Amino acid sequence: MSVTALERPSAAAHLTDEQVEALGAELDAIREEVVASRGERDARYIHAVIRAQRSLEFGGRGILLFAKFPPAWIAGTAALSVAKILENMELGHNILHGQWDWMRDPKIHSTTWDWDHADPAEFWKRSHNYEHHTFTNVRGKDRDLGYTVMRITPEQEWKPSDLIQPLTNVGLSLIFEYGIAMYDMETDKIRSGEKPWSEAKPEVMRTLKKIGKQAAKDYVLFPLLSGPNFVANLTANFTANIVRNVWSHAVIFCGHFPDGTETFEEERLDGETRGQWYIRQMLGSANLTGSKAMHLMTGNLSHQIEHHLFPDLPSNRYSEIAPKVRDICRRYGLPYNAGPLPKQYAKVWKKIIRLAFPGGHERYGSPTPVKKRVTKLGRRSAPARLAA
Amino acid sequence: MSVTTGFGTVGRHVRSLARAFTTPLLPDDVLGTLNPLWSRRAPRAKVVAVRRETADTTTLFLRPGAPYAAHLPGQYAGIGLQIDGIWHWRTYSLTSRPGDPVLQVTVTAVPGGEVSGRLAHHTPVGAVVGIAPAEGEFTSPGGKPLFVTAGSGITPVMGMLRSADPADLRHAVLVHVDRTPAEVVFGPELRELAARTGLRLIEHHTALHGRPTPELLDELVPDRPAREVLACGPAGLLDALTDAWPDVRVERFAPKRAAHMDGTGGTITLSASGVVAEAGPDVPVLVAAEAAGALMPSGCRMGICHTCVGKLTAGAVRDLQTGECHDAADQPGRPVRTCVSAPTGDVTLDL
């Protein structure tokens, strides 16, 4: 199938090869500066977050032993929701990236940490740290583009089942942790037969075991411990899990899907230089603006651009290097996509609704010029350009 | 069923129930967060007293938070210290008696030694340090002993002398080498012990008499061949003794390390999978191991995703990005990213 070139250059098309490598060198320098200055202050930070998170979690659960009393239900659910969000985002996601491995603390290490999440840490590290962070926004390689269940760029071929994707997204938002676990087991490939059951079975069993433990804690053990408050305790835990799911879904969808984030052809990976890799990360990511508390509650994924440039630098440093990265973008004439959460999230929703229907290239088409015949591109094979 | 196994079973059930409440954390993680001293899986000890022994040597009195298995006299314990956020572990001889509730380690600040300097001079009472179980083969002798010690090499022997039955010390000889009498760690205590028990203490001061040779020691202790010789001190002395007396038991503080020769590379051994590979000085462990047929965990292959991390159990690797050297002798089992680490000499990884 041949496709016509889309006459819209990438936002980085004006840069010469030398400029791309100079930009790469500047970013390398930022990285080295942070690596050289990691120390006491950073260690204190992560220990403080861990202490705060555990205090909130067990404090909240303590209050919820009296969940029948409405103020206790509200306070306990709020504390537990915040605790679960911190646990997944500022702690789990970042520690599993190896951001804190440099401390050589076996208790805070990417190889030993597990998180309060349906997805076993090992599977998450494979799909997220490797596939998503290495092949960010490369169509057909980065399965995070729509998570195999949604059409998130117009180059993904439209199917009638995409019509319900706004509903799919609401559902995914509510069950996000289970969605991620299913995604990491590659249930799409299991269904299609691409992944044999013999290979999938141990992963499925491990995930189910993990889900069982998490569910037993939230929906059996703590409710039982609260005695006559059983039902109120259970609904509180359920609510906290939903709050965590909806929030993390919103933050994560704002990281790569708002307007202006680019997606890329697989061919781009051939001989990609360090500088080009950096540019792909910057053009494929979007930041959220907001207060310090907001950044903490997003696990500093509000600094998605900085995180994608330097996935293994400690998260507390992203806000410090953000002005430098922004300045680099300004000097090299590159977009630095950032906005408040409600605005970015609204953009994501508009896109998901628009792309539920065929087309969408005029508004959302990838600006990368397409020159070559496109081979297989994962879930939806070819970027059929229906309109341009 | 005996009472003890009954309690053991109950204890197990209680522990697994507690675990179900804290999953994915362990109850121990929660306790350790409340107070590091309560952790049993990452044991800590509190510094309850500090005694200055000489200008550069300090004894730290440590009360472990978790029950500490009694050591054998002469063994050493790992002491962990967080410096600039990074955990550093070093081993020091235990100078207290086995079973004492307060452990003692005696630390001499090594010139340029980041950890020993910090422990000897800047560790206040109340500080919390990491503590590892006691280890070591350099333990109390069975027969009539001759101890040969130099400088801080007295520390493991002090552990043995303090733990020994005073009646047995009558047959023991200690030759201690130091620059001057004032610099002898535990000097007054050793002299008092000799006077009280009949321990034969020979102090050899290099400021006056130069370095001792095996021949000189044979003159000082004529029945040396009939004795079990235990020696601890600088490498030069120990090398001379092991050359002269094959049966001598020695304890080295600075392990004989393979030289980190740039431009050599080495043999990579993967202990879990049994793969052996050769690699040059600039070939990442990952690449060499894969070429040799190993199924290696790998991800981005550029040092970012940490998918390829493996534990370094022996030897040293160089971080190809920073040029930094990571040595298993400094931190056994230290995780290294195989995609950006090349061997400097022979290495073993748990992969």
Automatic annotation (TrEMBL), chain A:
Residues 72-338 form the Fatty acid desaturase domain. CDD domains: Delta6-FADS-like (cd03506). It comes from the Bacteria. InterPro entries: FA_desaturase_dom, Fatty_acid_desaturase. PANTHER family: DELTA(5) FATTY ACID DESATURASE C-RELATED, FATTY ACID DESATURASE 2. This is Acyl-CoA desaturase.
TrEMBL record, chain B:
Pfam families: Fer2, NAD_binding_1. Its cofactor is FAD. Keywords: 2Fe-2S, FAD, Flavoprotein, Iron, Iron-sulfur, Metal-binding, Oxidoreductase. Residues 40-141 form the FAD-binding FR-type domain. PROSITE patterns: FAD_FR. InterPro entries: 2Fe-2S_ferredoxin-like_sf, 2Fe-2S_ferredoxin-type, Beta-grasp_dom_sf, FAD-bd_FR_type, FNR_nucleotide-bd, MRET, OxRdtase_FAD/NAD-bd, Riboflavin_synthase-like_b-brl. This is NADPH oxidoreductase.
